[in-house]
Target: Coenzyme A pyrophosphatase
Amino acid sequence: MSIGYDEALRDRIRARLVAHDRRVVTDPSKRHAAVAVVLVDSETGEDRVDPAPVDDWIGGRPMPEAGLDGRMVDVSGGAAFLLCRRASRLTSHAAQWALPGGRLDPGETAVDAALRELDEEVGVGLPGSAVLGLLDDYPTRSGYVITPVVVWGGGRLDPQPAPDEVVAVYRVGLHQLQRADSPRFITIPESPRPVVQIPLGNDLIHAPTGAVLLQLRWLCLEGRGDPVDELEQPVFAWK
Model:
């Protein structure tokens, strides 16, 4: 069942973020980045179709398991977040699922960077007053500390993705984060930490994006303060 996009949801999420004892990662060996978790409205059945065939954007990445084809289908409806499919031509993390975001410029705050990247990557400009709060920092295997910034879009918005970076932008209903088969955890020989998987559409979303989305569910939707910063990434995302 979809979640209503209204002021009550906005106020509830803001209150939970304000009350949360946020985990901050200070690691001088890592660069600082930020992502925008943009909450928007959506309609059931409006899922867009990828502008390119799977083989064109997947960049050779194998599907995680049988029965999944990598498409983000049947996910819209009610309160949603914006999810991007990265272009396959990028030099790092090509063809992966991601939230709008990137590295902080000199002198920028995480909020400044998240809003700038949101505008540059998906053509959505929002003011600082739209920010509801921050989720926990997540340290990545590729050398970053990511700060997720939760932003209230105020409606449907009209994303215009930058083609050099983003293949498509989806409105994914928040209720999809609460699927009965989500989250999933698997083990890998390369790490003692559990790898988190968030089933969405016909694919699995891994950390760091998967970890951010799991905390969005636990904290913002369910009021749980469980940490996610120690959840592992799959080996393909380590570089």
